[in-house]
Every structure is written in C-alpha cells, then in structure tokens.
Design brief:
By secondary structure, the protein is of the alpha/beta class. The protein has 27 helices and 22 strands. The chain has an 8-stranded mixed sheet with strand order 7-14-13-9-10-11-12-8. An 8-stranded parallel sheet has the order 21-20-19-18-17-16-15-22. A hairpin with a 2-residue loop joins strand 5 and strand 6. It binds phosphoenolpyruvate and magnesium ion (MG).
C-alpha cells in the first residue's frame, strides 16, 4: 500500500473499521485517570465486545513464575486474584512459557487444558491466548474464550497481540496496583541460569547488554499520516545503511559479514514485510509499535515451524526488526562503542545474529550468553570460530541482569552465574587459571613438531569452516587445514553464493594459510545442514538422504561452480578437493569427469592452473570399506569422517543425545574397520587422514596412532592437548598393545589404554 508524498492517506482500510474504533477506545482508557485495576477491567470488557468473545481475561506473572488472574469479563468475578496457575500449567501457562499465541478451537479436549471450577469456564470451548510481552519479557497472558468451537482468525490474533502490547505498557507504567510486585524480578541476588553450552570455554567477567532493546512506549499514533511518513523514511534509511555497510571497504569481500548482510538486505526489501508494516500503521499504531507487532506475529508464525531453517530465519528477522526500531529511534549506530567495552566483556543478548557478534572487538570478548541459540545456530558457529565461550537457551537472562554485573559463564556445563558469590568466583578463577596454565604449556609446544618418542612424525592439522577460523592456524601451530567445511559460507548466506564470491572466499582462505596445505571439502549439505535457497523435499531420514556427493552429482551445475571457484582461487598453488559421503567407488569416476571438465575450461579460458590438483574421498559410509581396492586407485587421498562413520557403523544418530555416546569408538568393531583402512591405504600408497572429533580427543588420537594413522585433523583447541600426548607416546608400543587388545576382543579397550598412558606418563589432558 505505497502512498505518494502529499497524498491523502486513508486512515484505515475499509475492512478494519472495528479495529479503528477499538484503538480509539483503548487510547481513551489509557488517558483516563482512574486506578489501574479499573483500567484493566475496562480493557477486558472492550476486548470481549470487539472480538465478540464471551470471555476476556488477563493473567499476570508473579515472581515465582505462576500466573494470577487479574481481570476478567465473563469468568466469575470471585476468581479474580484467586485463580493461580503454576508455571507452564494449562494452556495459559503454556502460552507464557512458549511466548507465543495458542489458538485452540476445542480447548477442553486439549491434553494441556487445566480446568478451574472456581472460574465457571466449563461452558467455553474455544480459547485464544497471547503473551503480554515487553522487550521480550513475558509479563502475563491475555485470553479470550467462546462457547462455540471456532478457530480464531489471523486478524483476531493480531488484534489481541496489539492489545497485549498496550497492557504491557500499562503494567510497566506501574498503573496496576499489585502487579508491579508480581512481575518484578530481583536484580541483586545471585542467580544461576542453566542453558546449553554452544561454544566451549569458561569465562569470568562483566556483563554488557547487547544493544539494549528499544522499548516501544508510544503505541497509538496521534497522526497516522505522519507515522506513515516516519515508517517510510525509516525503511529507506535502513535499506541505505545496509547497502552502505555492504559496500564499505573495510569489509573483506570474502568475509562472513558479507553473507549475513546480504541476507538482511533481502529481508529489508521484502514486499510482504513492508505491506504488513504499512497496514499496522494504517490500523492506528505508531511506526515503532507496527514494527514490534509485525515482529511478534511473524515470530509466532515462524516458531510454529519445526524446521531449524525457519528458526534461523526468525533470528535474522528479529535482528532486522531491531535495527529498524533503532533507526526509527534515531539510534542507528546504537550499542556499546568498542572503547567502552570492559576488557572482560560477557555479552548478554536475547538473540544475536552472527554479523552482530563479529561487530564486537574479539580481544575484549570473553563470553556470550543468549536466550535462544542452539549449538547448530549461526551465532554458535561464529562464536566457536572466534574462540569465545558461549551458552545458549539461557531463558530469562536478559531480565535478570544489569549492565556491568559480575558473571561467570561455564560453557562446559551450560551454567551462567550472575552476581556470583565470592566462593563461586574463587572456584572458577582457579579453573580458569588452570586452563590458562595448560594453554601456556600448549603454546610453548606450538613450534615443536609432533614426533613420538620412537620417532614417528604425526601431521597435526586443524578443521576450519570460516575465514575467522584462519588465525588459529598460526596460533595452534597446526600443519595445515585438514578439513575446510565449505558449507558454512553457504549456510550463512541467503542466496547461493555466486562464483565470484566463492572465488574470493577460497582465495582469502588460501592467502591466510600462508602456504600451509588446505583441504577444501565440497558442499556437504543435507541432514541438519540446510540451505535456505535449495528447495528440499521432506525426508524421513535426512542423514541417510539426498545429501553431499549425492546432491553434487544430481545438481552438477552447483558442484561444477564450486570446483570452478576452487580452481580459480588456487592460481598456481596446490589444490586439494575432498568429496564427502562417498558410498561407492563409481561415484568418484563421476566426480572426476566433472572436475576434468572444469580443468579443461580453466585451460581454455587461459586462467592459471593450480600447481597440483588432488581429489580425495571421505571415508564415512561403511560400504566403501568393502570396496577399498576399487576406490583407492581412483583417489589421491582419503580422510575418515569418524563422526559419520561411527554413526553409520553403529546405526546411532550422532545428533541424538540418547544414543550418540552409547557406543565407544574405542571398541573392537570400529577399530577393526579403521585398521582395515590403514592396511589398504598403505597397500595402495594413498595418503590417509582422519578429521572427525575422534582425532581431537587425546586418548582416541593415541589409539589412532596405534592403528597406524600418521595424519589427523581436529578443532584448533585440541591441537595442543593432542601434541602434548604425542610427545610422550611410544607409537610402536601402543600399536602392539592395541593389536593384543583387538585380538582378545577386550571389553574395555579405552580403560586399558588409559592405564597404559598413566603407567607411561603420557599426558591425556
Ligand atoms: C565427519 O563426519 O566426521 C566429518 C568430519 O564431517 P562432518 O562432521 O562435517 O559431517
Ligand atoms: Mg561427515
């Protein structure tokens, strides 16, 4: 609904007269002097009238997390201040916990329904509940109920959400007697919040609230035409600022910022978003309130999707909405300036996009705590790459902290201690000191080659996936990049990265490797690795599905573009390309055909060729173990993806906590599988590496060396501990011991190796 400047703007589309009247009534109620309880009572009456609902009630959250009925139209008045629901109890409690609308045509039949006889609600069937939220904090729930079975329309949901925003403002202004105490959280006591570790580490420091959210206080527009102009100007400015950031020269053309900002730019130009914002302003809201309302309803819609892709998009979208709010508030570049960051910053955020984390000065950042964020989220990927400890799913943390509070983040256990006691601080400082001392010892080993006591040189490499990982190569002293997971760049991007962007990315990686070898793995997409722009059909078992090389061979153009980018980026240097999920030898023939075509094209177009080109396969699907004599002659190297190999050998989902650790890689079956591979690789003289998580655990790395591996690749932080183990190891001795244990089908090979390490003084970190 674009309007030209100076043109008369219709106050409301003709379909929304009721909403317009309602908004006017709300404004009057708000302006009324009267006491807070009386206003709540009038609000519930108004809503029940507008929505033709027999019941409208407001529940508010108490300090203990329970919900108390504060006002109602339709339920028994005696239930007010009497009916309480425990945290998460009933559909209303569930709405508060999930912070999203609940729309139930047959509420009483719902398993979560909690019947309260004192309210007289047994005659009502349908129920719509929306959270009363302010700046992300749930303060209560607004509910309507009807006798008849019906599903409330999207418009009903939006009206109720808007009203909930008004009620939230009301509460914060302290207008409701008794409610202040109900919703206030203590911000002085020590609190422990249990979240989930998303990036390893332990940190002590002081809290910086990530761009404290703009709190929308003015909800209803005095002059809709003026609001529309403000909104249009805000959107224009937002788009211009994103364009400018994208063009800015300090952003490396290949950096991760680029991918993420491109995604935001696409969102910012989304016509549907703009239309919904316009409609909300035309409905009588201020520009800021419109942004918040659209954000809330979009979030509710996206959260209904179980797909991790949509959850990630929701985060990006939240980020963009917050940027627009700041633009409207004239604080486009708000937040804490780098110079003001304490040197031990613990960043606390409701939600954070990966680009935003990259905006902070890494040298001052100790940890990140976010209310959402899973281990697979983009911000977790970036936190790991930066080496910043991070905890996600830390529910309610933003409400419980103030800027510069002391905090301890334990990203081993997932605990966040706010305003910790002296003892907690002392215990953790010991832990941090211990880790730092170890780190110093590892640093001292950096330039020492990894050679066992009996003279076996082990090549220790690191795994990477983003440009920000690359400094770890020099810091860890790794011999090279044994696995570069190229899909991360694709996952952070909103559109398929074009050839030039891919070339720039790989060129930057090779430049940062300063001559050390880099193994680029071709796209390993599928399973939980989702690309926004590739349409997926539903798969029952995505880990066993259309992924990695299977997709590459079916979508040859996609694969060839990536190979072209590798070739162009290499320019006279060595190039190693590794293919994931190879399941049969013939697949490597198909890969070779495509690669050869690209090499021919490169020559024909006169671009410099790589000095050498090696194409290898990952060994992560058990079938190829029985085809090694056919596969190995077709490849220049192989690398075991032990994460997948173990998952497929044991048929145990690596992402399912109930089974992921159920079977030990240090048991006879997988060790025999690996031994078979070592022998075959030796016979065919094919270089062999292992790049799964196994390589990074010293005891497992010790077993790998015993099996005959001389090259392994791991997370950068594991290079030190593994090297320290290797320096004390006698490779021949562990090989002999392992042979005995395998022959005997020993039940506890791990324990036996640990005892051997202990006896021989081998450090297992
Ligand atoms: C593996 O499977 O072990 C591996 C290294 O690849 P990814 O973890 O990316 O699947
Ligand atoms: Mg794998």
């Amino acid at each position: 609904m674009a309007t030209k400047r100076g043109e008369e703007i219709p106050i409301l589309p003709p379909s929304e007269p009721a909403l317009r009247v309602f908004m006017r009534r709300l404004r009057e109620i708000m302006a009324d002097p009267g006491d807070g309880q009386a206003r709540l009572d009038r609000i519930v009456r108004q809503i029940s009238g507008l929505m033709v609902a027999e019941v409208c009630s407001i529940y508010l959250k108490r300090q203990d997390g329970s919900l108390e009925l504060f006002a109602t139209e339709g339920l028994r008045p005696t239930a007010v201040h009497d009916t309480r629901l425990k945290r998460g109890e009933g559909l209303v409690g569930r709405c508060a916990e999930l912070a999203q609308p609940i729309n139930e045509p047959d509420a009483q039949a719902h398993p979560a329904f909690s019947f309260r006889p004192e309210t007289g609600e047994e005659v009502y069937q349908s129920l719509l509940a929306v959270p009363i939220q302010r700046a992300g904090e749930v303060m209560g729930v607004l509910v309507v109920q009807n006798r008849t079975r019906k599903e409330y329309s999207d418009e009903d949901v939006e009206i109720l959400q808007t009203t909930a925003m008004v009620v939230a403002e009301h509460l914060v202004s302290g207008a409701v007697a008794g409610a202040g105490g109900a919703i206030e959280f203590s911000k002085s006591a020590s609190v422990v919040i249990k979240g989930q570790p998303i990036s390893d580490g332990i940190a002590l420091g002081h809290v910086v609230l990530h761009e404290p959210r703009i709190v929308v206080t003015r909800l209803l527009a005095e002059d809709p035409a003026a609001e529309m102009r403000r909104l249009e100007a805000g959107i224009r400015e937002l788009r211009a600022s994103l364009d400018e950031m994208l063009d800015h020269e300090h952003l490396s053309a290949a950096g991760e910022h680029q991918e993420v900002l491109e995604a935001y730019r696409m969102f910012a130009h989304d016509k549907g978003w703009e239309r919904r914002l316009n409609e909300a302003v035309l409905g009588g809201l201020t520009a800021e309130a419109a942004v918040e309302r659209v954000q809330n309803s979009t979030r509710a819609r996206m959260l209904r999707q179980n797909d991790p892709y949509w959850r990630e998009r929701q985060r990006d979208f939240d980020d963009l909405s917050d940027r627009l709010l700041r633009t409207l508030a004239g604080r486009a570049n708000g937040g804490t300036a780098p110079a003001e960051l304490p040197p031990d910053t613990i960043l606390v955020a409701r939600t954070m996009g990966p680009a935003e984390l990259l905006d902070y000065d890494r040298t001052r950042l100790r940890a990140l705590v976010v209310e959402d964020g899973s281990a697979q989220s983009h911000v977790a990927i970036v936190a790991k790459a930066l080496g910043v400890a991070a905890v996600g799913q830390a529910k309610g943390v933003v409400e419980r902290v103030s800027a510069l509070d002391a905090a301890v983040v334990d990203a081993e256990s997932g605990e966040v201690h706010l305003r910790p006691s002296g003892e907690v601080i002392a215990a953790y400082s010991d832990k941090v000191r211990f880790r730092a001392r170890r780190q110093k010892q590892y640093d001292a080993l950096r330039d020492k080659p990894a050679v066992t006591r009996d003279g076996a040189r082990i090549s220790l490499n690191m795994n990477a996936g983003l440009l920000v990982d690359m400094p770890h190569l020099a810091e860890s002293g790794a011999d090279g990049i044994g696995l570069f997971r190229t899909e991360l760049q694709f996952m952070l991007s909103q559109t398929f990265p074009r050839l030039d962007r891919q070339i720039a990315a790989y060129r930057a990686v090779l430049a940062e490797a300063h001559g050390k070898p880099v193994v680029f793995r071709s796209l390993d997409i599928g399973g939980d690795k989702v690309l926004p722009y590739l349409r997926r059909t539903h798969e029952e078992n995505p880990a066993l599905g259309w992924r990695a090389i299977r997709m590459s061979l079916d979508r040859a153009a996609l694969f060839r573009t990536q190979v072209r980018a590798f070739l162009r980026a290499a320019e006279g240097r060595e190039l190693r390309i590794m293919i994931p999920m190879v399941s049969a030898a013939f697949e490597m023939d198909a890969v070779r055909v495509l690669v050869d075509k690209e090499v021919l094209l490169l020559e024909r177009r006169g671009y410099p060729k790589p000095r050498s080109l090696r194409v290898g396969a990952m060994i992560e699907v058990p079938s190829v173990l029985y085809e090694l004599d056919q596969l190995l002659p077709k490849v220049d190297f192989v690398s075991v993806g032990s994460n997948d190999l173990m998952q497929f050998l044991f048929a145990a989902d690596r992402g399912n906590a109930l089974v992921a650790r159920r079977y030990d890689p240090l048991s006879p079956a997988p060790l025999r599988a690996l031994k078979t591979l070592v022998r075959a690789a030796k016979k065919h003289r094919v270089p062999l590496n292992l790049c799964g998580e196994m390589a990074g655990r010293p005891i497992e790395a010790m077993a790998l060396i015993g099996l005959g591996f001389r090259s392994i690749s791991m997370a950068p932080a594991s290079v030190g501990p593994v090297k320290s183990m290797i320096l004390g190891l006698d490779a021949a001795k562990v090989a002999a011991r392992l042979d005995e244990l395998m022959q005997a089908n020993a039940p506890d090979i791990r324990g036996e190796l640990e005892r051997m390490a202990e006896a021989d003084g081998i450090e297992l970190a």
